[in-house]
Amino acid sequence: MDNMLMDRIKGGMYGVAVGDALGGTTEFMTEREIKEKYGYLTEIIGGGVWNLEPGEVTDDTMMTLGAADGILENAEEPVEAIGHFFMEWYRTRPKDIGNIIRHVFGKYEGDWFETAFVAHMDLGQSAGNGSLMRCLPVALAYKELADLDRVTIMQSRMTHYDPRCAEVCVMYNRIAHRLLQGEDLGTSIKAEVKGSEYEEHLEALPDCPPSGFIVHTFRWVLYILLHTANFEEVVQKAANLGGDSDTIGAIAGGLAGIYYSYEGIPARYANAILIKERLDHTISQLYEMRTSC
User: Fold this and answer.
1) What percent of the residues of the chain are helix, what percent strand, and what percent coil, each to the nearest 5?
2) Residue 39 CB partners (closer than 8 Å, separation 6+)
3) Which of 67, 92, 140, 279 is exposed most, by the fewest CB atoms within 10 A?
């Protein structure tokens, strides 16, 4: 077994879950409210708007697992399989589910891409961060960039018609692809956002709220990753932003988990996650798929 690759894949999946579970406590709060209630949140304690159990994850992690399961079931054409796992999860009546995704799931009758367009028209926009929060398994599963790009775009367009969503998902997964090969975090980010609207904003504190709008989310994710020194700082910084903190934490945590590896995730965080068994099973399958050909 390639232990370093396994450690990075495991770090990526646990990174999503930890960022989600920590940030779930502060979702929809303001920075000021967080400061008044928690000082600076550093522990996975649950609660929050969804009344989470400590270590309980939300839609970010569950849809990431759904995307992974669909890819593992049908790597060549995973859309229908991913959709099957998404709908299976949706039928469990989850506590937290984004408006765009809820709308698509409610309207779905057999064609994901058509439904995403209808939802876009109904809602007047579809530039949310819901396809970005779940896309990491594509980078973990596929070695070839052509496959990575194709499947990343498809999984995004299943629910988010706005082209900015697929564009950011590709940038994100290409950064992950570089990190899996041992590249530096800052170098990987700068290489993949070069020439995009995000390039000019990498150094300055974002002048936008930490919202679910894909552009805002990605600016915060990149800023956090470039201005922290370890995994713990990444997820804590995201959680203490408030706003869409669970999703920003999950997205930033996924890349941080690959870069700092599973060994770099504090044991108290990894051990707190309630669905560890489910995560570990999917992680071992993703590793197998990536190394089998």
Assistant:
1) 65, 0, 35
2) none
3) 92
What letter would DSSP give residue 265?
S
Amino acid type, 36: E
In this structure, what token pair is assigned to residue 268?
């108290």
Q: What is the residue-wise DSSP string for 151-199? A: HHHHHHHTT--SHHHHHHHHHHHHHHHHHHTT--HHHHHHHHHTTSTTG
Q: At residue 71, does pLDDT exceed 70? A: yes
User: By the 8 A CB rule, do 16 and 60 touch?
Assistant: yes
Distance CA 286, CA 269 (A): 22
Q: What is the pLDDT of residues 177-215, one digit of tens each?
A: 999 999 999 999 999 999 999 999 999 999 999 999 999
The pair of structure tokens assigned to 19 is 């960022």
Tokens in use for 234? 């990444």
Instruction: Report how far residue 45's alpha carbon sits from residue 37's, in angstroms, rounded to the nearest whole number.
Output: 13
| Closest residue by Cα to residue 61 from 135, 116, 7, 5 | 135
